[in-house]
Amino acid sequence: MKINIQELIQIIKTVATQELLPRFEKVSKEYKLDGSIITEADTATQQRLQELLHQSYPTISLLGEEMSEEEQLHALANKNGAWILDPIDGTSNFSHGLPYYCISLALIEDGVLRLGIVYDPERDECFYAEKGMGAFLNNKRLNAPDYATPLNKTIAGVDFKRLPADMAARIASNPPYASQRSLGSIALDWCWIATGRIQVYLHGKHNLWDYAACWLILEEANGASQTLDGDCVFTPTMDHKFAMAAVTKELLEDWYQAAS
Questions:
Q1: pLDDT at res. 35
Q2: Residue 159: its pLDDT value, please?
């Protein structure tokens, strides 16, 4: 089925305008069994996007964060493809009034990531990519900077909380980078690597809906990523992933050696 990515972008922007922005700083939060936060905006955004996507692409299933694991696995097995949706990546930020969050949408067909869209409504920045077609930020081609920044001069996006304790302690006590950030949205972090705003990245426990869209965007922007075992981050499964990334393959190699 032919997918119109510009139509998808407009759907996402419309839902963000109607469901997310009016609720920002005005929504109460609840806690799931795993301790993560959910808000009315999460469920309203997912429901609205599911309705609109089904209207345009009725044979494609939807795998959303705010679904049961059984529903997610069923959606992923659909032979006609599955949308991978995080209605708010950065819910904790959103619920506390921190303006760093996004909607993330990807499409998997036959085990392959076909497209990814990450929309930041606060800055009206839309990152998107189609496999083999390059990555873009607001219709301008996006390429991760290839300048030779040494690791000790980089800004690193590191979430210490989800790293193995020995690794977190080693990096924190002897940081190989110049400065560290933990901004709170996996999808936006990866897209910011693709722009060069962050140069290296390390984070644990990526869910499929966290990384699917942004992984493709970084790949198409010629950035680099891998798991802590040196494998490809993306697989069409529900497995959690520990991921590291950088603006170039050379910098990723240095980062891996320093962090391991």
A1: 59
A2: 94
Identify the CATH class of 151-259: alpha beta
SS3 192: helix
pTM of the predicted model, to two decimals?
Answer: 0.94
Identify residue 239 by its one-letter amino acid code: D
User: Residue 89 — left, alpha, or beta (φ > 0 → left; ψ -120 to 50 → alpha)?
Assistant: beta
- CATH code given to domain 5-142: 3.30.540.10
Q: What is the pLDDT of residues 138-171, one digit of tens each?
A: 999 999 888 778 999 999 999 998 898 999 999 9
Which part of the chain is CATH 3.40.190.80?
A: 151-259
31 pLDDT exceeds 80? no
Neighbours of 154 (CB within 10 A): 22
Q: To which residue do tokens 């089925």 refer?
A: 1
Rounded CA-CA distance 104/84 in Å is: 8
Q: How far does Cα 43 stand from its chain's mean position?
A: 18
Looking at residue 160, the DSSP 8-state letter turns out to be G
